[in-house]
Amino acid sequence: MGLLLAGGVFAEGGKLPENEDWSRIYLGSNPSVSGDGKVFAFEWNDHLWMADVTGGVARRLGSGPSADSWPVMNADGTKIAFSSDRDGGMKVFEFGR
User: Fold this and answer.
1) Which of 17, 32, 65, 74 is deepest in the core (most CB within 10 A)?
2) CB 80: neighbour CB atoms within 10 A?
């Protein structure tokens, strides 16, 4: 993961608590790289994010207070499966890219 975050990743978008500094993402976990190797999804602060592998600004995937984790991209990078408690218990969901 060190190589993926070498350029630095910064947060953008999403409603996050105002009393925290959300401008720089640190200790992101569970990265999943797209099949073309250009972008990756990762978990940070109970939310899923996507960024270029070269660094830059990450965008939050989804919204709301749910705890999302363990993103996994499909082979062509068009979908991301993940775990979430958005329906009460932990279940598998999917985002289209």
Assistant:
1) 32
2) 22
pTM over 0.85: no
Token readout for 69 is 């984790």
The lowest-confidence range among 22-31, 36-45, 49-58 is 22-31
Q: Which residue has the tokens 């602060």?
A: 45
Q: Is 40 in contact with 31 (CB distance < 8 Å)?
A: yes
Q: In Å, what is the CA distance from 44 to each residue of 17, 31, 50, 68, 83?
A: 14, 10, 10, 9, 13
Q: What are phi and psi of 70, to 5 degrees?
A: 50, 60
Q: What is the mean pLDDT of the chain?
A: 80
The rounded Cα 11 to chain-centroid distance in angstroms is 10
Residue type at 60? R
If you write DSSP's letter for every residue of 9-64 in order, what string do you get? Answer: EEEESS---TTS--SS--S-EEEEE-TTSSEEEEEETTEEEEEETT-EEEEEES-S
